[in-house]
Design a protein that fits this description.
alpha+beta; Beta Polymerase, domain 2; Iojap/RsfS/C7orf30
Length: 125
């Protein structure tokens, strides 16, 4: 089983939203073979808590425009690692220190990467 077309569409929208708010290291994985609860993960990071919040807000707004509301949002108070669960996809926006420490991409490295659109740019400093 692979991620649904709708999940891929949501991944692309979330990645674009993160890119528009200058997110770093934007990547996505098809986790549908490993997890029954979601099809894909989107990972993005930012150098400070304020930018993490800005990215999270933009992702939520963009997916809401597509008719998707988050089922759950966790970690917002600390602003270091916010998880937004949309059902089909889960978006992780992390402060760059948390991203380096937890290294989710190493944990999910055996899952296929989802190719992101050419207009998605990881804004590295």
């Amino acid at each position: 089983m692979t991620a649904t077309d709708r999940a891929i569409e949501l991944v692309h929208a979330a990645a674009r939203a993160a890119s528009d708010k200058l997110a770093q290291q934007i990547i996505a994985f098809d986790v549908s073979e490993q997890l029954a609860i979601t099809d894909a993960f989107v990972l993005a990071s930012a150098p400070n808590d304020r930018q993490v919040k800005s990215i999270v807000d933009e992702v939520e707004d963009r997916l809401r425009e597509m008719g998707r509301k988050p089922i759950r949002r966790e970690g917002e108070r600390d602003g270091r690692w916010v998880l937004i669960d949309f059902g089909d996809i889960v978006v992780h926006v992390q402060h760059e220190e948390e991203r380096e420490f937890y290294a989710l991409e190493r944990l999910w490295k055996d899952c296929p990467a989802i190719e992101l659109p050419a207009d998605v740019v990881s804004h590295e400093r």
